[in-house]
C-alpha cells in the first residue's frame, strides 16, 4: 500500500488496485510468494472516510457512500489472498487498524 501521507488508509480506488494486484499475482507462474506491506511508518489506518463522503443519487437524491455498495468491495480484495497458491506474508510495520 502506497499512501504514506494518509497512513495507507483505504479508499475504493486503493482496494480496486489491491484486487487487480492480487489477481495479477495469481496469474503469474513466476510468483513464488506475495508480501503485503504499507509504505511509511504505518501498515494501514483503516478506511479513509474523510476522502469518501459520498454523494446524492442523481435520480432520487438518496445519499450513497462508496463503502455502502457492497461489503465484498471492502473485504473481497483481502479474501482473494486466500485463493492464491503461494505463501502470503504480511510485513506489518506500525499500526494496523481495521475499519478506520
Automatic annotation (TrEMBL):
Pfam families: ECH_1 (PF00378)
Name the UniProt record assigns to this protein: 3-hydroxyisobutyryl-coenzyme A hydrolase
Gene3D superfamilies: 2-enoyl-CoA Hydratase, Chain A, domain 1 (3.90.226.10)
GO terms, molecular function: catalytic activity
Organism: Zooxanthella nutricula
GO biological process, one term: fatty acid beta-oxidation
